[in-house]
């Protein structure tokens, strides 16, 4: 059996990513970066000017993807670095509301992140959709 090695002394530090106009109620950052890897927390369809959840699915989708973009940029990357987006939707039949801004953000079919939509009927506080993402910033 091979012994487990301790992390190198110069291992990359964990960095919490915060974005103005986007926050969580709990004491967590919008995302965390270690080296080239970025993992987000829940990214909501909130208006960065008010912090309120938008009232329609279309508006929540646009705000959610804009918040994703702002978070990855705050981490030092761009939407081109996003590898996967996991989406929780109250009603998956409303995917077309997500597809339009998705195609605007990721227009090249040869360079889109993976996406997984999960039915989440218990989303609360007026949320119709939320996501999390993984990115690799090289």
UniProtKB/TrEMBL annotation:
Pfam families linked to this entry: Ribonuc_L-PSP (PF01042)
Database matches in InterPro entries: RutC-like_sf, YjgF/YER057c/UK114
GO MF annotations in UniProt: deaminase activity
A Gene Ontology cellular-component term: cytosol
The name this protein goes by in its record: Endoribonuclease L-PSP
């Amino acid at each position: 059996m091979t012994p487990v090695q301790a992390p190198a002394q110069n291992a990359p530090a964990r960095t919490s990513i915060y974005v103005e106009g986007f926050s969580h109620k709990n004491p967590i950052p919008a995302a965390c970066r270690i080296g080239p890897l970025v993992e987000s927390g829940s990214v909501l369809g909130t208006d960065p000017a008010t912090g309120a959840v938008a009232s329609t699915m279309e508006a929540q989708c646009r705000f959610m993807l804009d918040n994703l973009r702002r978070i990855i940029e705050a981490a030092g990357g761009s939407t081109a670095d996003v590898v996967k987006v996991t989406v929780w939707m109250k009603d998956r039949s409303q995917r077309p509301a997500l597809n339009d801004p998705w195609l605007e953000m990721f227009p090249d079919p040869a360079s889109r992140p993976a996406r997984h939509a999960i039915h989440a009927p218990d989303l609360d506080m007026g949320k119709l959709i939320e996501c999390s993402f993984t990115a690799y910033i090289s």
